[in-house]
Amino acid sequence: MLMLFRQLVSILALPGVVAVALPVWIARRNHITFIRPHDLASMAVVLCGLAVLAVGVVLFAASLFYFWSRGHGTLAPWDPPRHFVAEGPYRFVRNPMISGVIFVLLAEACIFRSLPLAEWAGLFVLINMVYIPVLEEPKLVTRFGEPYLRYKQAVRRFLPRLHPWTQNEPQ
Predict the structure, then answer these.
(1) Among 4, 80, 110, 115, which residue's Cβ finds the most Cβ atoms within 10 Å?
(2) What is the C-alpha to C-alpha distance for residues 102 and 14, in angstroms, rounded to an integer?
(3) How far is CA 58 from CA 31, 35, 36, 65, 129, in A?
(4) pTM for the whole structure
(5) What is the separation of C-alpha 131 from the centre of its chain, rounded to a whole number of angstroms?
(6) For position 107, what pLDDT does the model report?
(7) Which of 83, 118, 87 is nearest to 103 (CA)?
């Protein structure tokens, strides 16, 4: 029960703010509302957004599951996984959770057909392009050592591999 509570707190504090609270604030500040699509192009954008939203939610949920079940931790920097996780979506890309959140943000921009929401998605990408290599990855190297270094060499940060990585894979 404690782990469930830890997971919920971390979800509300981080992706809840990034993918829900801030987009709602941006939408209200910019008077953005959902307008039913009236032509084929806007319908295609909304449908694409819904598909991207589904991918983002599934990717995020799968990543969270592996942090919980294999890593015995949460997505929060103050309560990280205790064990190195390189299974599930982590076999294809080093940051599937962030990728999932990015997909959700892009989906929101598409569904609402909103430039301010797209700008927020872009800013979030830029923040993570700095934060992850400068702050997160050095801590992971310190915490997990050689296994993480091998993983880091074989699996890209944001672009997924075509074939899943295994810990026994030669470098």
Answers:
(1) 110
(2) 13
(3) 29, 26, 25, 10, 22
(4) 0.92
(5) 13
(6) 98
(7) 118
